[in-house]
């Protein structure tokens, strides 16, 4: 029986970087978490402990910080990830592939009586912007997205007509609360885009579709959110969603002599339904290695 080394990569995970742009008195903050991973001729590193072709993970960390200074900031996280990937592959002949994953945390200016403050900020909720850039001999791929976008509709949602078995206890409803935490990833066609503008548009389109779709199932809302994005953005080939159904159950107040006309609910955190699907163009180009390094999605 032969034994051999399989696919592998290594790098520095979760490099926390905060960049402050001080070009004017109105400062701009970029708060990101970078994970850099490299691939290449690493056989002897694993089998013999020969580090000749092993660029230290500490060097990868330092490169992230140095390039943020050399390049005048981070900019769109997709552009920063692409430049990092190209640097690692282009500058080191023993590196033939790079995966750069970045999460961005949004900060809003604190509003004062005089308007938005020049250099005071508050961090926005749990929502995170993401990107995974992969570069190798076959090409470059960008998969961007968001996670932790919590949304809720207090009406305009139904759920009925589903199969019933002897284990079914869920009651049909024509008026329920619909809530979820949206995690979405979209695959770009090509790599030359205004990523900040596309991100803002995609987020707005998803929110509008969620709000305006009279939903008969969370799956229907998911599909309409993806369809809205693809109709407006030909540069996006597909959108993949993972959306938990954050159940809200009507509380029985009859023991207390009270009615409950869809006003008082118990918000259950678990167990929860988990809805996952891809909305894609039927003529979309093949994904290549785009999704290979994006774990947790279909």
From TrEMBL:
Keywords: Oxidoreductase, Purine metabolism. Catalyzes the oxidation of uric acid to 5-hydroxyisourate, which is further processed to form (S)-allantoin. The keyword Oxidoreductase applies. Belongs to the uricase family. The keyword Oxidoreductase applies. PANTHER family: URICASE (PTHR42874:SF1). This is Uricase. Its EC number is 1.7.3.3. Pathway: Purine metabolism; urate degradation; (S)-allantoin from urate: step 1/3. It catalyses: urate + O2 + H2O = 5-hydroxyisourate + H2O2. InterPro entries: Uricase, Uricase_CS. It is an enzyme of class 1 (oxidoreductase).
């Amino acid at each position: 029986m032969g034994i051999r080394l399989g696919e592998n990569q290594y790098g520095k995970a979760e490099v926390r970087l905060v960049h402050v742009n001080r070009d004017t008195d109105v400062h701009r903050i970029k708060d990101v978490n970078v994970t850099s991973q490299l691939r290449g001729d690493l056989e002897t590193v694993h089998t013999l402990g020969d580090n000749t072709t092993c660029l230290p993970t500490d060097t990868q960390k330092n490169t992230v910080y140095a390039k943020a200074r050399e390049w005048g900031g981070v900019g769109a996280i997709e552009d920063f990830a692409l430049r990092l990937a190209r640097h690692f592959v282009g500058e080191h002949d023993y590196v033939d592939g790079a995966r750069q994953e970045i999460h961005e945390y949004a900060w809003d200016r604190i509003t004062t009586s005089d308007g938005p403050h020049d250099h005071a900020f508050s961090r926005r909720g749990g929502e995170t912007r993401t990107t995974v850039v992969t570069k190798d001999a076959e090409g470059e791929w960008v998969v961007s997205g968001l996670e932790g976008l919590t949304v809720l509709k207090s009406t305009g949602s139904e759920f009925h007509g589903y199969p019933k078995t002897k284990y079914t206890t869920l009651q049909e409803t024509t008026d329920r609360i619909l809530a979820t935490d949206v995690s979405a990833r979209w695959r770009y066609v090509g790599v030359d885009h205004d990523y900040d503008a596309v991100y803002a548009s995609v987020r707005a389109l998803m929110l509008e579709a969620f709000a305006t779709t009279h939903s008969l199932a969370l799956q229907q809302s998911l599909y309409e959110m993806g369809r809205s994005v693809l109709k407006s953005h030909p540069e996006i080939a597909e959108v993949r969603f993972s959306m938990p159904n954050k159940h809200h159950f009507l509380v029985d107040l009859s023991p207390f002599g009270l009615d409950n006309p869809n006003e008082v609910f118990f918000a259950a955190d678990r167990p929860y339904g988990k809805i996952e699907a891809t909305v894609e163009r039927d003529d979309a180009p093949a994904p290549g290695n785009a999704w290979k390094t994006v774990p947790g999605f279909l």
